[in-house]
Design a protein that fits this description.
Blueprint (H helix, E strand, L loop, with lengths): L3 H30 L3 H6 L11 H8 L3 H32 L5 H11 L4 H14 L6 H24 L4 H9 L4 H12 L1 H17 L2 H6 L8 H11 L4 H35 L2
Length: about 280
């Protein structure tokens, strides 16, 4: 027992320090958001004496964080739903259906993982401008789907390959079509992987700045992270208002993690131990 305790502390102590390093910036931001400009200038590290919501109200209404949040919710929700639909269908086809060129197609999807957005940014922006998709929701949604679809296809293909072939053969013997196997077998069994990849894609799209900045140049259609980035220049002298905008951007992700942390862990465990 005495040998296991030091070994446990050797693991627990770095994890504790890492947790504190992760939580402290959020607590510091929340504390600054509750201060006035005068209080922040006098002592930026002191605790706020009272809980003030004025800075949050200013960031939500005057700065436009409410509009930016709505834009992000629309774009991220549509993008994740399309990614899950196309990614699960492609993963099923590439893992279980045998057709000419399937291996080449799968390798092409893997190659897409190594193409950064910066390489295709200029020609993509010109194509989107020529088709009238710049500064529109569908344009940014298509860019997100194209950028993160290879990652989704890779994960779903890897997961679907772990499902026993006997389950699919039994469904085909019972008279299920290919679509029936996908809808009745692959979707329910792939739910843990779909949840995990959906959350990851939602975080990728939510935290994106570059793609949204290129595709949504107008202030009306800015996403939340682009709006937070713009606050650095507009409110560089009003740090509490800037901190309020950062806090508004961080809270949705924090809430999602708090409510879905069990599902995230279960999805990752299922994907690593299945079969």
């Amino acid at each position: 027992m005495s040998r296991t305790r030091p070994a446990t502390w050797l693991v627990a102590l770095p994890m504790l320090l890492l947790a504190l390093a992760t939580i402290y910036p959020l607590l510091f931001t929340a504390n600054v958001a509750m201060k006035t400009r005068r209080d922040y200038v006098l002592d930026r590290f002191a605790l706020a004496d009272t809980l003030r919501g004025q800075n949050l109200t200013t960031a939500w209404t005057s700065v436009g964080m409410g509009r930016y949040l709505l834009n992000s919710l629309i774009v991220v929700t549509a993008s994740v739903l399309l990614l899950l639909l196309f990614g699960s269908m492609a993963g099923f086809a590439l893992s279980r259906l045998r057709f000419r060129g399937s291996t080449v197609l799968y390798l092409a999807c893997l190659a897409g993982l190594f193409v950064p957005f910066q390489v295709i940014m200029v020609p993509l922006a010109r194509i989107m401008a020529d088709t009238g998709l710049i500064d529109t929701y569908p344009g940014l949604i298509l860019v997100y789907v194209a950028q993160f679809l290879p990652f989704t296809v890779f994960l779903m293909t890897s997961y679907y390959r772990t499902i026993p072939q006997e389950v699919i053969d039994a469904a085909r013997i019972d008279g299920s079509s290919v679509y029936g196997v996908y809808r009745r077998i692959m979707i329910p069994l792939g739910a843990p992987a779909l949840l995990s990849v959906g959350i990851l894609n939602a975080l990728f799209c939510w935290n994106d700045v570059l793609m949204s900045l290129v595709m949504m140049p107008s202030a009306e259609h800015r996403t939340l992270m682009v709006g937070v980035t713009s606050l650095r220049g507009q409110y560089s002298a009003d740090i509490p208002t800037f901190a309020s905008g950062v806090l508004i951007a961080a809270l949705p992700v924090l809430v999602v993690y708090l409510f879905l942390q069990r599902q995230i862990a279960d999805g990752v465990a299922a994907g690593s131990t299945k079969g």
